[in-house]
Every structure is written in structure tokens, then in C-alpha cells.
Amino acid sequence: MNQYQHYCLEDFVLDAKFQSWVRYQQANEEDFWQSVIHNYPNLTEDINGAKTFLRSVYKRYETQLSDNELQFEIRKLVEKARQDKNLTLKGKPAVPETSHPYFLRTKSIVWMSRAAVAMFILGLGLWFWKIRPQSAYDKMTGGLSLTEKYNDTSEKQSLTLSDGTLIVLEPGSRISYPQTFSGDRREVYLSGIAFFKVSKDAKHPFFVYASELVTKVLGTSFIIKAIEKEKESTVEVKEGKVSVFRNPEVRNPGNLPGKVSGGLVLTANQKIVFEKESTQMTKTLSDSPEIVSSSKLNPTFEYKNTPVSEVFYSLENAYQVDIIFDEELLKDCPLTASLDNQTLYEKLSIICEAIGAQYELLDGQIVVQSKGCKN
Amino acid sequence: MQQFLSLSFLKVIMSNSTEAKLTDSILWNAFRAGDEIAFGQIAEQYYRNLFSYGLKFSKDRELVKDCIQDLFMDLWYKRETLGDTEFVKFYLFKSLRRKIHKEILKNHWISEEDDLVFEAENIETRSVEQQIIELETNEFQIQQLKLHLDTLPKRQQEIIYLRFYENLDNEAIANVMSISRQAVANLLYRTIRELKDRL
Known about the structure:
The complex is a heterodimer of chains A (375) and B (199). Chain A is 36% helix and 26% strand. Chain A has helices spanning 9-14, 16-24, 27-39, 44-61, 67-89, 101-131, 136-141, 308-319, 327-330, 344-355; strands at 147-150, 157-160, 166-169, 174-177, 186-197, 206-210, 213-217, 221-226, 232-239, 241-246, 264-267, 270-275, 280-285, 302-307, 323-324, 334-338, 358-362, 365-369. In chain A, a hairpin with a 2-residue loop joins β6 and β7. The model of chain A is unreliable at 92-107, 129-133 and 249-261 (pLDDT under 50). Chain B is mainly alpha-helical and 199 residues long. Chain B folds into 2 domains: 1-117, Rna Polymerase Sigma Factor, Chain: A (Orthogonal Bundle), CATH 1.10.1740; 120-199, Arc Repressor Mutant, subunit A. Chain B has helices at 2-5, 18-32, 36-54, 61-77, 88-106, 128-137, 140-151, 154-165, 170-177, 181-197. The radius of gyration of chain B is 18 Å and the shape is globular. The termini of chain B are far apart. Chain A binds chain B through residues 9-10, 13-14, 16-17, 19-20, 49, 52-63, 65, 70, 73-78, 80-82, 84-85, 95-97, 101, and chain B through 13, 16, 34, 36-37, 39-40, 43-44, 47-48, 51-52, 55-56, 65, 68-69, 72-73, 76-77, 120-121, 134, 138-139, 141-146, 149-150, 160-161, 163-165, 167, 189, 192-193, 195-196, 199. Chain A: Pfam families: FecR, FecR_C. Chain A: The chain crosses the membrane at residues 109-129. Chain A: Residues 301-367 form the Protein FecR C-terminal domain.
């Protein structure tokens, strides 16, 4: 009780015990506060003021809700909870986060029978799949009149299609293609690894279907690696530009329906890695980027007091890759080096070492981190 | 929900009595284990307060009731991931406010940027009977103060409401209303002074 000795009106209105007394007027609390007033008569005015203050607040904001109304609402809630629980116990898989439980109740029998049918079909499918594994490749080529080339040798084999496109097929890989291309598109189907050098024909885009990925090309060269049993598929571009999409017709169980629109554009020396399990598509650079033949003839990598920004531009040009760096910071950094015999990554390491920078690959680009070399 | 439960600095004064706290936690654990009767009792504990608060933002009693139904069903679906009971009251108030805001937005009564308007029922809409009871039991002062409450800015009224009517502390009020704790403290102090001067 001593704590109240020095209270004023502001303290009383904020005191939980005091609030509860004014609000609910319980008998035991009444006694307590009467004794406070008795012991500290000087507080009487503040206590009465605080009481009036709170009472007006409680009066002003009280809301009428009859016990019947309240009980009706509570019964409704308990009933919904019970139905939800029963559904869950009967083996409904997931708890609906937002859907309305009433909807679930009336439709539950329909849903359960549907689930049973789905399970049966899934089981049947699994059984067939065990006897004769049907790959994405088989599914796509089934029913089409195509020529198939299967490389059962231990050497690479090359073939030329009717449009002049060159394909180099790795051992154990197969490709299906029409004898002659007709229609708007040139479409081929791949299982395994192949290098493509596609003849330019902008009016007839070239499509390669390889397990989960569709690669659309106008005219360029690239390598696709799509082996059914492996965890990843990759598309690696040597020259030019291709777009890669998820194949909407090939879905792993549990995948969301594929979207053709979510494609990625790849340019020279870029690579796409598609992880089948997570269905993640990641853009990165090739493991060993090569000088793009269409760029300047015989580029040299001899530098003598060359500003490092110019060095990066020459590399961008030769390898057709994007190098991101702070031009303002690096324009005064001179570099003297002879880098003709190194790979791109070796060149970058040497340059970064020289200027005290670091590089990383990010989304198919090279990002150079530097604090500048001005002293 | 998860995020808010991890905000351990938020505390809501629920009850001063240890006994009540114990009963609360037994009830809460039963609810988390999937006992729908315990769930009903918890809902009953908070229902009047939530309804009263909700009605300050919308005069549509059925809309407020629907929002509270949704609110508790959300709580039910999430029961297994819920933490301690001390945050429940604060969470319910904040969620109810958000739900009503969303409903009102959906019906195009306000635009996206507008916050909700806190407004108590008009005194005139109360029944004559109620008014007579009030006249009998309250002094003139209380009537005066009640009228003065209405002239306060809506934000100040909401803070007064949450602080005195719902017993939330400044931290919780700041979170429910999405304003800073300092602003709550300042406004609360100013409002108490203003009302005190009217006494």
C-alpha cells in the first residue's frame, strides 16, 4: 500500500489495480481502496479525480453485446474448430490456412473419393514406370514421325540437319529430328549431351527440347547437357544468344505447372544450370569461357600501363561477357601484364591481385569489388 | 505471427493474480493441444473486448463479428506453432485492426493510404433507458468528460481506449497502431493532462 503514498492523479489512472477497481467495482477491491484513502487522506482528491476520469472513459467506450449474441458467436467458433479437427483426424493432408471450413465439410466425401482415384492412378503410373521407365524424351517424341540418331559408339558423332545445322552427339546420347523441317519452327529432341551450331534463319526459330528445358535459338552455337538420370541439366552458350525455358509438358511430381514465360536469356560464355529436384534455374558463366570468334580478330592481352578499366573492356569484348566494376574508382589504376596464355578466370585473378581487388560471378556476370588504387 | 512471437520485448499486462495466470496457461496449453472447448473459453475471454474495439472502426456489427470469427479461426489453424499466452491479447488486437482495415478497403470505403478512424458510437444512438441509468448513477462531471473525449483527435482517443479500456502498455499500443512508442507516450501524457484540466 505504501507505493501509493506519493501517487498523483496521472499515476492512479495508469495503475492496473486502480483501473480494475473503477471498472468492475469488486467488493474486495472496494475495501482495499477505502483503506488507502483512510491511511492517506491527502490522496482523496486525486483518487476521486482519477475515478471520475476512468469512469467517463469506460462509459464512453463501452459496447453493448448481449450474452446471447456472445454465446452464439462462441458456439459457432467451437463448432468450426471441431469440424476442422475431425477432418484432420480422418487424414486430410494439410490444414486449410484460409479456406472456409464449411466448404470442406460439405465437399469432403467428394474430395476423399477423388483423392482415392488419384492415388490409384499414381500407383498404376508408378507400376508402369518401374517396368519400363518412360523418360521425358520418350514422352515427347512418342507419336511423332522423327528420325532418331543414337550414338552407341565411344566416340563423338556429328550429323547435319536439313537446314545445315551441325550437331555433335556425345557417346550414349540420342537425338530425334524431322527429315526435313516444315512449319514455323525447327524442333529437335535431345537426351544426353550435344553441341549445336545452328544455321541462321530468323524466320524459323530453332527449338531444342531436352528433359525439363526448352532452348530457343535464332542462330548460334551452344552445348546442351540433359541426361535423364542426372540431377542437373545445363545449357552453355558458345556464341550468340539463346533463350531457355522450363518445358511445361515435363513435370516432376510435386512441381507447380511449368510456365513458359519464366525464360532466361543466355549470351556467349554463359551457362544455365537447371536443378531437377528444386526446379531452380541458375544463370552463371561457363566453366572455361572462350574467346568468341566473331569478336575482334586475334585480340591480344598485352598491357603496358593500361588503365585497368580499359583492360576490363577488352576482356568484355573478347569473351562477350559483362564485367561490372566502378569505373570512377578504377580508371586511374594502371596495369602492366602479358595475359595471352591464361584462361579468362586466370586473367581476372592476376588483374585483381595486381590492383587489390576481388571478383565474383553473379547471375552470369563478373562483378569486381575494389576500393580503388588511389593512394 | 511467428515474427511477432519472437519480439520478446513486447509484454502485455494480462492479469495481476498468479492464480489467474495459471488457469490461463492451462487453458492455453489445452487449446494448443487441440481442445476446442478450451479454444471456445479463450475466445470468450477476449470476445467482448475485441468486439468493442472493432466496433470503433466500423459501425457494422455483423462485419465486426465476421472479422472476429476469421481471427479466431486463424488462431485455431496456427495453434501448434503458437508460443506463450502473454502475447495473445496484443496479437488479437493488432490482427483485428488489420482485418477490419482490409474489409473496409475491399468495400472502397477508404483509400489505401488512409488509416482507420477510431470513433465511438454516438451518445444519441443509445436507448433512453440507458441514458436515464447514466444520469442516475453518474455525476455531471462524468458527462462533461465523456463529451470532451469526443473532441479529442481520433488517435488520442484510440490510445486512451487501448491504455485504459484494454490495459495494453505503451509498447503494445505502438505496435497495434503502427506508430512509435515515443509517440504513444507523448500523446498519452498530453491527453491525461487535457482531461485532468477538465475535472
